[in-house]
Predict the structure.
Amino acid sequence: MSRFPDRAVVLSILLAMMVSVQAWAEAFPQIGRRATVAEIAAWDIDVRPDFKGLPAGSGSVTQGLKVWESKCAACHGAFGESPEVFPPLIGGTTAADVERGRVAGLNAATENARTTIMKLATVSTLWDFIRRAMPFDQPKSLSVEEVYAATAYLLHLADLVPADFVLSDQNIVQIQKIMPNRDGMTTAHGLRDIKGKPDVISEACMKDCPLEATSLMVLPASVNGRNGNLAEQNRHYGSVRGIDTSRR
């Protein structure tokens, strides 16, 4: 089941950050100013898994198709399936996944096996990310209605809603109940909790780190070279190296 950091831990971290900011402001009173209410509101747009922060509105699958073709398809493909620029968004989920709330295909090691809809646990994350970061070259340019519409279109491509569906703040809670990987989040790996205590000290590997090859995206040969040779676009450090995509 999905779990979130302890509220007390989050509040203590935020309090420490506020104290640090206040101390810095007192040390350098001539630098900066208080953010205005309007400035804060422009950035305070996150939508939580419990849908707090979700604005009222709606958008249909049909409207979403128009938004998608004009503002999304160039990078993600007409059906959200294209891996040419970004990893594919849609595919790999089944009716059985929807029923159990866990995507079985995540355990497969096949080419391009992990799409966004397979890994996504909350529909709020999808809605929030589209509103906050898309389109890639014009983030935050979509209206609330366009975000609802684009989200509805993706849900339709994933066979979660019919073609005449209208997504809104009134029915999005029901969509959460049919997300294919809604019960796929866990903190059993220790990222959030270690022996009953918050995991606040990272022990990241910095040298001779093992590489989990099954976690990597493998591009199909059909798109090799379309965005240049990946082997020539790497940083000159780190264990993950780009493969040679100059050959077709």
